[in-house]
Amino acid sequence: MPLSGADKRRCLAALDVLETKKLYFDWSANWASIHDGNTSQLGGLKPGSREDSAAPKLRWVGLFNAGSNKRIQPPPLVEASFPAGTVPTTEEVVEALRAAVNAA
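The chain above was modelled as a monomer; its predicted structure follows.
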């Protein structure tokens, strides 16, 4: 689904903040919040991650709207995947999500 101009700007601003952090990922089968993704600094967005439970077991990261409880609210506004077993760095995640925002 295409992002509105306002959502694109909000996502890009959040990614500018995230690239200054060291993020810690949870590779469970369900979307989970990424540790050190301070929602208060991200304009109401929150990063999340998950791993497919079936082959090819891609690893996914996404940017979500956060509810009043600061929990992620699926579906993600944008998402990007990495090959199975890959542990992407914060920089790689930000780069992949920035590309997804620009393509949306």
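Residues 16 and 94 are 8 Å apart (CA to CA).
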